[in-house]
Amino acid sequence: MTVVAYIGLGANLQDPVAQVENALAELGALGHSRLLARSRLYLSAPVGYDGQPDFVNAVAALETSLSPRALLEELFRIEQQHGRERHFKNAPRTLDLDLLLYGAARFHEPGLTLPHPRMHGRAFVLRPLAEIAPGLSLPGLGGLGALLDGVAEQAARPLEPPIHSVAGARP
């Protein structure tokens, strides 16, 4: 059985555009998974800790047969390959991969909450997500349109022309 999972990507150190693009390629090569779609890149201000560079962000849709926990472990592995260090909450980083949604799953266990508990309040997640899945409804949170209205004042601007899907894939 497969499910569509959505992954948030972000970086603000060591050539953030390359970090995110390389991570997207690594998601595309992930075992038991297939990259369905990816958003264009967005530039956004840091959240929670202002003394750092702006972030480059994107969202990817991944069809996977991995469990949520196994997928999360793969995301951590990719982060480590990119030199991710966790010095303090919201610190600058070479790469951040967040499991945003896993189908319609809603649950909380140590180290994993689905949907991602802060995604609904972040334009740098919602705008790229709406680009690749405009009709998506977030389990327990509602449709993207209303959620986007709630983050309208947040800056998250596209860096490149849209890239809606991977060749031969469907979101």
What can be said about this structure in brief?
The chain contains four helices and ten strands; from the N terminus they run E-H-E-E-E-H-E-E-E-H-E-E-H-E.
What does this structure look like?
25% of the residues lie in helices and 28% in strands. With 171 residues, the protein is α+β, with helices and mostly antiparallel strands. It has one domain: 2-Layer Sandwich (Alpha-Beta Plaits), CATH 3.30.70.560. Strands 1, 2, 3, 4, 5 and 10 form a six-stranded antiparallel sheet that branches. It has a two-stranded antiparallel sheet with strand order 6-7. The protein is globular. It starts with a strand and ends in a 13-residue tail after the last strand.
Give the CATH topology: Alpha-Beta Plaits
CATH architecture term: 2-Layer Sandwich
Q: What would the average pLDDT be, to the nearest integer?
A: 90
For the secondary structure, the number of strands is: 10
Radius of gyration from the alpha-carbon trace, in angstroms: 15 Å
Low-pLDDT runs of 5+ residues are 167-171
Number of helices: 4
* CATH homologous group name: 7,8-Dihydro-6-hydroxymethylpterin-pyrophosphokinase HPPK
**What is the number of domains?**
1
Along the chain, the helix and strand elements come as EHEEEHEEEHEEHE
Distance between the termini: 17 Å
Largest sheet: 6 strands, antiparallel
> Which term fits the overall shape?
globular
Helix proportion range:
25-40%
Structural class of the helices, strands and pairings?
A: alpha+beta
CATH C-level class is: Alpha Beta
Q: Report the portion of residues in β strands.
A: 25-35%
